[in-house]
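User: I'm curious whether this sequence folds into something compact or stays loose and floppy. Could you predict its structure so I can see for myself?
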Amino acid sequence: MKKQIFFLLVLLMVSAISKAQDSQFSQTMFTQLLINPGYAGSEDKICAYALNRTQWSGLEGAPRVTVFNVDAAIKNRIGLGLSLENDELGFDKNFKINLSLAYKQTIGKGKLGIGVKWGVASSAIDVGGGGWVTPDVIANDDPAIPIDGSNDINFLDFGFGLYYKTQDLYLGISSTHLLDSEFEFNSNEAGTTTATNVLKRNYYITAGYNLPFANPLLEFKPSVFVQSDGTNSQLAVNALIAYNKKIWGGVSLRTDNAITGIFGIELFKWVKVSYAYDFVVSDLVGYNNGTHEIMMGFCLDVKKDKTPEKYKSIRFL
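Assistant: Here's the prediction. I'll summarize afterward.
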């Protein structure tokens, strides 16, 4: 009985989250490409980031998401990017792959990236494989529970974004899932509808600034992150301090009742590693061990200094 109650709770949680928001992250500075194709190539380097987030650790069926982003600048005008995302929440499993293309135009002291992205999204419900349903429920063939783990739907996915960046400022506005896709899962051969999922269109605004201290080795990096699907919205305010551009740490406050601590370091002059921990301050605090988010990535400067040209003259012969 307890397992059935927990299954119902997970079902409600899946419905509330998957219909409202994209995947949630604390270290949004490393997931910009995922939400804004205009970001592609903005660093004028080849950058790759892998991030794993385990939300509400210790709570069975809680969200887990893994992301891989890579982007590069091409001839100062074009940015290319590739994003992979695997998201699991209870028995709800989603995978997305997107290619981003950005055109960069110099405006004032910075560059504006105008980007589009397109790709494929896959959504599946795997109840039996996750062990969520006991044999008695399967025997009763409850039409409200999609037992068939083979339910797998693929569909096209599109996004658009603008990203403006100077040496000290960045500002982005974007939208994901422009098609606002809705799809249904069936549990039997008769095609009885058991679950409806919606990949809702999401809107994002991001902004940040670098403020130097009196000590030139220290920088204050405040930023804001706004996410909305038109019905539900979330605001995150971040405050980070960086030392010598190699070590950073700070806190983030989110309106979903979470306080996040962040710490990161750059190794070997180009490899970055960072960790974030979410302190849940809602009623879930007694039912989980917090949220862990680990990132590893790198940026390579591929610009090559021109070799000085040599000239021969009869004066030196």
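Summary: The mean pLDDT is 80. The helical segments are 2-18, 32-35, 135-140.
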